[in-house]
């Protein structure tokens, strides 16, 4: 059993992992992430304290399923490409997707997160690399070849960055690669304030910083950036599979503009 010694933003991945495991164990599983279910059995941690409810688990699975869909679309259009999975945590996307031989895939996260990841998951196929670093220092990106289109996936990451860090990261990626897409979720500024009351965030002792009020704030980072999609987290498919209470909450959120804009999934191209 692996003992967990993570705090702050890094510790929030435990709630996400547990949510996917709960979903995988459900007879109405959305994501079918059985590797997450196996992983929590190898970790010495009281997951009952992470603040993840069964209904929350379904929403975690739906978010990941949406990003899986965008990932598959990009790989279908670009059989030879690079994937940067930033703030990968314990996510098993590379195993769920099963990218082809022309895809170079990099899972990137803090060294202590990557250390745990190596202990829980198999090494992966040729072309798969794990990079143990924070995403904010500039040097790590120089190790990634810039000869292919890139898909950057940053699920559940941006809100833990400071605005200047997030904008600089976007700028460096756009200037490093010939072209590609960036897919990630972001909270509005009001959403950042409200998420500070989120139980998993409180339990982890994490701090949220960067709020994004619309795609224009993102495309202003670099003249090459343009927005392909900006989808409210309440508008993605699959909510018919969650419990009645969550379906009611989603219905209310869709009617209130400030809630609809509170959490948005962006797909940018350059």
Notable characteristics:
7-stranded mixed beta sheet; 270 residues
Tell me what the structure shows.
It comes from Nonomuraea soli. One of its GO terms (molecular function) is methyltransferase activity. Keywords: Methyltransferase, Transferase. The structure is a single chain. The protein has 270 residues and is an alpha/beta fold. The chain contains 11 helices and 9 strands. The strands form 2 sheets. The chain has a 7-stranded mixed beta sheet with strand order 5-4-3-6-7-9-8. The longest helix has 24 residues, at 54-77. The chain is globular and about 45 Å long. The model has no long low-confidence stretch (mean pLDDT 92).
Reading side by side through the largest sheet, how are the strands ordered? 5-4-3-6-7-9-8
Percentage of β-strand residues: 15-25%
SSE order, as H and E? Answer: EHHEHEHEHEEHEHHHEHHE
At the fourth CATH level, what is the homologous superfamily?
Vaccinia Virus protein VP39
**Helical element count?**
11
Shape: globular
- The gyration radius over C-alpha positions equals 18 Å
Task: Give the CATH class.
Answer: Alpha Beta
Please name the CATH architecture.
Answer: 3-Layer(aba) Sandwich
Low-confidence stretches: none
Q: Based on DSSP secondary structure assignment, what is the total number of beta strands?
A: 9
Structural class call reads alpha/beta
Number of domains: 1
Q: What is the averaged pLDDT score?
A: 92
Distance between the termini: 44 Å
Characterize the biggest β-sheet.
Answer: 7 strands, mixed
The name of the CATH topology is Rossmann fold
Helix % is: 25-40%
